[in-house]
Amino acid sequence: MQIAFRTEHDSLGQVRVPATAYYGAQTARAVENFPISGLRAHADLVLATVHVKRAAAQANAALGRLEPAVAEAIIQAADEVIAGALREQFVVDVYQAGAGTSHNMNCNEVLANRAAELLGEPLGTYTRVHPNDHVNMGQSTNDVFPTATRIALLLGAGALVEQGRDLAESFSRKAEAFAGVLKTGRTHLQDAVPMTAGQELGGYAACLARGAEDVAVASEQLRELNLGATAVGTGLNAGDDYRRRAIVQLARHTGLPVVPATNLFRVTQSMGDVLAYSGAVRRLAVELGKIASDLRLLSMGPRAGLSELQLPAVQPGSSIMPGKVNPSMAEMVNQVCFQVIGCDTTIALACEAGQLELNVMMPVIAWNALHETTILREAMRALRLRCVDGLEADAARARELLDRSTATATALSPFIGYEATAQIAQEAVRTGRPIRDLVLERGLLDAARLDAILSLDAMTRPAGPER
To answer: Is 140 labeled as catalytic in the residue annotation?
Structure first.
């Protein structure tokens, strides 16, 4: 089917735009210039940017800068997009010109055309509502994009933290359930000392809880906004009254505790607040990835591996081996965690690449920060619901491996010395004989004393040796 076009113009000349498009000339140029990845702006970034435009229209109308009818039309258009309309009109690739000017203009043009349509004007006319003069009034990409990035991350950070805490709580419940399951603790992938499965999973819960708390704390830095800073932080064409009013409106309409930046130049020059947030997300991902790897190790088998934990079967594990079941959810989580670390590395490099009064690498920073937030949140949700909540411990298998290991030997060291204990442990490994039998055979301790020392239950409690 042949596509009809309309002709628009910008400061560089005439541009053909699809006749039914709500975007305009600058967006069309960006689509032509940047056919890079097929990736589009994250939905939360679109939502946040439109919230900024809505707040700006309210502030400008209150200050008498924007005609009331035009302001109301822009606000209505923004409300429609916030409700989910016209999302297909946000078409600029993630990898675009620096600072996010193309994204900002995409939003300006969509809102301007929809507002004009509400006022009875054809698409692409821009007589009543202009993308720059009205929708972008008192703004620059250099304060809109950082503000939208922070708003978008704040919109998603709470849910990420919640999923981290929920997953930690799921592990805590399993830790309580497995409190009596004795097993071999391992360091360097070798037998260490006895512990319980509950203690092991309780450690996982604490790691996740701490990681989620780090994200919550780091996200507080995102509350400072440079909206009203305009191009470099001086506030040219905006003013303090506009800045205060716009941020009040943003806070009111998003429900987020955002505030004007203490130093507009800092927030305009630097994306360090986003870097701090991403660093906390990376920490949570690293904690989670280690736990996912542990789940895979502890469930390996079912006959020829450790098999101390049993993960819920969620899908057949092989196209060639009938009956094989894999730790699919943990494998998915590992892959997500690798991707989060990659996103954070990109963010770090892009944040360092800021120059003078602006970081022009903001589009890739925003996309990666929002992407890592989304995938880590959903990975933790899926792991909790489809793996951890249904996790089971094989107490008999764990005890079998413990009884076969030399893990109990360490408890002897305070009583017979390190060297003698090492000799006992080495002989046990070489001969397969029990530790207890070797100690009694050498006459190092009497049976009653030895049994008290080798009590597995006592070894899992943090107490010093009773001589």
So the answer is: no
